[in-house]
């Protein structure tokens, strides 16, 4: 039986679409404000040692991503059964509770349990995407999803700076602000957000549809696609070096600690966000039109590998900042790799492809935190100095370079 034709959103749904944009923006802001202070809080709770704090930061991130890996498909299936509205609202309330617990907690076990709760409730981003698909005509979906992408970009550009400034006042303050943002989001959605999935279009909950590994089976029948998926995985893994180690690395290598150090970290994260917006918003289109997707991937991987090496070699924070424009050009590789992958499957398999890519990114999110934080912990514990102190960035450079070589190999037949 053919699926019902999508219905364009009536004018009354404009407030709901605005809410979905705002809920994603606010949730990203809530997560972003705690990025600069969570490592410092863990360092404080675990006794003030950088190596110990780094290890726990990696375990927290791994637990968070592991919960998200399993919760994302389950939440999607639940939203197919019970509707999008209750899943989104419960997730917002859960995030508010998560951040409030972290604001109040002073012990490691409670902080860890709260972070696991955050991994479960933050999986609602996929439900927000499903809401957009429910209420937006097919011809308008690209623009709608683009606005969600803009919400992510704005949130992760602004929030870490604000979080660093708030953390300079009190390490717990960003968590209170994040809890307030999520609580306000829940209240706003409760009064504004209508249900987008009519009862007649809902489906029974099936654990087979909630299997996070199911979509990856698509890749097995397409050797070239499997290789490009490996490129995407390596790039997602390398990208985790930023959120997992930058704050503690800057503390170890450049002495950026205390209120002044947090402000420096905030400015650095702001610069990363601004450069990312410039590259993703203004340079990807012209570059791909001139070079094509394949060469854009190769150029981006080369710049990423070079940028990470320059990070490792930087003797102080100012040289690190000077390397950022080079490393920022790495951002052209991801969208071009996505384009190459989508060109290798038919329209009936695009959804499964995106699911497979999302599953691989979740696996990277599970492996990367421990890999990078354990590397930095070894460096700090052994008081390594010089370029080898940047071992985490050298490891990321190796990953990106390998991704570029793999992309060159699997796509050279088509050119």
TrEMBL record:
This is Major facilitator superfamily (MFS) profile domain-containing protein. The keyword Iron does not apply. SUPFAM superfamilies: MFS general substrate transporter. CDD domains: MFS_TetA. GO terms for molecular function: transmembrane transporter activity. InterPro entries: MFS (IPR011701), MFS_dom (IPR020846), MFS_trans_sf (IPR036259), Tet-R_TetA/multi-R_MdtG-like (IPR001958). It is a multi-pass membrane protein. The chain crosses the membrane at residues 16-42, 54-74, 110-132, 144-167, 173-193, 225-244, 264-284, 296-313, 319-337, 358-381, 387-408. Residues 16-415 form the Major facilitator superfamily (MFS) profile domain. It is found in: Membrane.
């Amino acid at each position: 039986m053919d699926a019902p034709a999508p219905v364009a959103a009536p004018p009354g749904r404009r407030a709901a679409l605005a809410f979905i944009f705002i809920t994603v923006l606010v949730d990203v802001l809530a997560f972003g404000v705690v990025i600069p202070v969570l490592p410092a809080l863990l360092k404080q709770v675990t006794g003030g040692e950088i190596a110990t704090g780094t290890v726990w930061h990696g375990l927290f991130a791994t637990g968070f991503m592991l919960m998200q890996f399993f919760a994302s498909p389950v939440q999607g299936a639940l939203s197919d059964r019970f509707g999008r509205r209750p899943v989104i609202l419960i997730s917002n309330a859960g995030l508010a509770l998560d951040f409030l617990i972290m604001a109040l907690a002073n012990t490691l076990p409670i902080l860890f349990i709260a972070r696991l709760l955050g991994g479960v409730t933050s999986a609602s981003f996929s439900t927000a995407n499903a809401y957009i698909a429910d209420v937006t005509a097919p011809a308008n979906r690209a623009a709608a999803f683009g606005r969600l992408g803009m919400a992510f970009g704005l949130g992760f550009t602004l929030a870490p700076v604000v979080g660093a400034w708030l953390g300079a006042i009190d390490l717990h303050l960003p968590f209170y602000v994040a809890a307030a943002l999520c609580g306000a989001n829940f209240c706003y959605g409760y009064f504004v957000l209508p249900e987008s999935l009519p009862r007649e279009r809902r489906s029974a909950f099936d654990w087979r549809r909630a299997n996070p590994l199911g979509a990856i089976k698509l890749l097995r029948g397409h050797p070239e696609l499997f290789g490009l998926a490996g490129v995407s995985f390596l790039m997602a893994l390398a990208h985790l070096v930023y959120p997992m180690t930058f704050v503690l690395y800057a503390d170890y290598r450049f002495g950026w600690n205390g209120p002044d150090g947090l402000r420096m970290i905030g400015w650095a994260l702001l610069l990363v966000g601004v450069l990312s917006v410039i590259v993703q918003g203004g340079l990807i289109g012209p570059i791909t039109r001139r070079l094509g997707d394949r060469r854009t991937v190769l150029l981006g991987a080369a710049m990423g590998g070079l940028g990470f090496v320059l990070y490792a070699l930087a003797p102080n924070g100012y040289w690190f900042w000077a390397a950022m424009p080079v490393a920022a050009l790495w951002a052209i590789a991801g969208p071009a790799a996505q384009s190459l992958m989508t060109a290798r499957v038919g329209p009936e398999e695009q959804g499964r492809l995106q699911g497979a890519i999302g599953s691989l990114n979740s696996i990277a999110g599970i492996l990367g935190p421990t890999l990078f934080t354990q590397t930095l912990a070894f460096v700090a514990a052994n008081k390594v100095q010089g370029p080898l102190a940047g071992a985490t960035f050298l490891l990321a450079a190796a990953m990106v370079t390998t991704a570029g070589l793999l992309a060159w190999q699997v796509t050279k037949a088509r050119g």
